[in-house]
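As a next step, we paired sequence with structure tokens, yielding the entry below.
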Amino acid sequence: MKPSRMVLGVMIALAMAVWAPAWGAEPKIGVVDSQKVFESAKLGKKAKETLEEYVRTRQKIVTDYEDEIKKIEDELAKQGAVLSPEAKKDKEEGLRRKFTDYQRRTSQLQQEVQAKRKEILDEFQKNVEQVVRGIADKEKFSLIMDKSENGAAASPVIYSHPSIDLTERVIKELDAKGVK
């Protein structure tokens, strides 16, 4: 077990033990697998499709630049022997400028993709949080945790009984909200 996971788990357990008597009722805890919600809910699928389409359009721009550079390289290789030194130098300089522009544009497009990904995922997360809050308020949950493991961020939930898993309910309520 990772030390940070253990510390977080102990802190939550202590907090629950200390605050439970103050609430006057048994704390009610639930878990949600946000990754599964993203992959299964209609809204998540729509967000994923939107992001994939955005990435495809940006990739097409990069591919077009690569094709132009390849074309210039091929022309230079074919005509290099017959070009005057000045014409050859001009072509080589044009190729360097095109390649520099390609690198700058590729970096810019990657930043645009990251910004779009953040925008789409933030909007999706906002919708998930609204649904989870609605369930928590309706059914008086004290705590609902995310049990998914997203990349480097490990979930603090090591084990949860299936009876407290709200993932399918969240998916169902998100789907009932409809895709915007």
